Automatic annotation (TrEMBL):
GO cellular component term, pick one: cytoplasm
Organism, scientific name: Ruminobacter amylophilus
A GO BP entry: threonine biosynthetic process
Function: Catalyzes the ATP-dependent phosphorylation of L-homoserine to L-homoserine phosphate.
EC number, as in UniProt: 2.7.1.39
Keyword Transferase: yes
Binding of ATP, residues: P97, I98, G99, S100, G101, L102, G103, S104, S105, A106, A107
Swiss-Prot/TrEMBL catalytic activity: L-homoserine + ATP = O-phospho-L-homoserine + ADP + H(+)
Pfam families (UniProt xref): GHMP_kinases_C, GHMP_kinases_N
Domain of life: Bacteria
Location(s) in or outside the cell: Cytoplasm
A GO molecular-function descriptor: ATP binding
UniProt-recorded name of the protein: Homoserine kinase
Amino acid sequence: MGVSAFAPASIGNVSVGFDILGAALKPIDGQILGDNVDVYPGDSEFDLSIEGWFASKLPADPKKNICYDAYVGFKDLLAEKGIAVKPVKMVLKKNLPIGSGLGSSAASIVAAVEALNAFHDYPLSKDEALMLMGRLEGKISGSVHFDNVAPCYLGGIQLMVEEAGIITETVPSFADWYWVSCYPGITVSTAAARAILPKEYSRSTCITFGRQIASFIQASHTGNEKLAAAVLKDVLAEPYRRELIPGYDDAMAKGMELGALAGGISGSGPSIFVVMKDLAKAEELQEYLKKNFIQNDDGFCNICRIDTDGTVVTSI
């Protein structure tokens, strides 16, 4: 008897919340947009196999995979509790592209940790599991990072708090918003996307950032859709990162032409998102992006809602 954990794709930053806001995505047509990790009783201490659309993009050595790091981190935490890990066979089904801006590493991390936790009857609390996920994400990004792992794990739109013992808080989302998410098929490394940003920002930019994120959170809690859409803008990263993404300006212009509420770069790119209210217009934009923004066979475009479920575990 084993368990399977599905962890959805996510948008980091969500334009207005650089490094402190994230949203989980679920395609409306039922397509799989996320990673699965299955855990079975093993014949040895640890075994990992990799399947899925983007399996070939990962290292062949299992010990160079983030799922192995998740296993080691989980094992160490259990050792602190005086609990021994069981021998496990893990299967990663890698459905998200690496370096896509869709929370690919976060999905693998979250699915691995939650599958291991479920397989061992949940010895880790949600906060303990989330802290481990954030540290594992930090091994890739360079610092403890929650803006993808938190929505991926917990679902919804998450605001990173990291104060007073609180890691993250759920922000209400607008149920009738369609999030058109498109991955063009190319890669933008997080390191390159970080390097292009200025080392310092002006006082006015900092004030604008604070005003907009505060207004977005307030508008989300009060149901003020007009205000939430108006301030869903990125003054910190998009002005610089947009040049790393071919066709970005044209894609945003087409979205606005079709009545988009807002749009921006998903995480550090190259994926983008556009928020729409009208499904027919969202479908029109989806077709435009497939023809004009996607650059190769690895690319794809989905019309999504916010995934309020987060990571889901089933028995297998």
